Input
Amino acid sequence: MTFTDRDRRIFATTDWEIMQRAHNRASQLLDRCPRTHERCNDLARVIMAIYESGVRDEDELAAMAANRELNFMAGRGHFQKPFPFKNATSTHESMTEH
Output
């Protein structure tokens, strides 16, 4: 993924490594080149935004970013089943007040 010098000053090296691996994984899920695809930089920005929101798990970052790209593609008429999250668990809590 391509970042400017300004981008690189925002995050620590370990943060970049996590985001780079997530970018590579998301690109793999989407079956596209992480360096040359026309939307590789858009995918990088999505990953940075999700990372800044607090998501630190690489697989979750990748799935969330890839699914965001699927939403973009769906808006252009290309539909695909969403990618599952690694820790997809459903919690059923009662909403009844006592």
Residues 88-98 have pLDDT under 50 and may be disordered. The helical segments are 5-10, 13-29, 40-52, 58-74. The two ends are 51 Å apart (CA to CA).
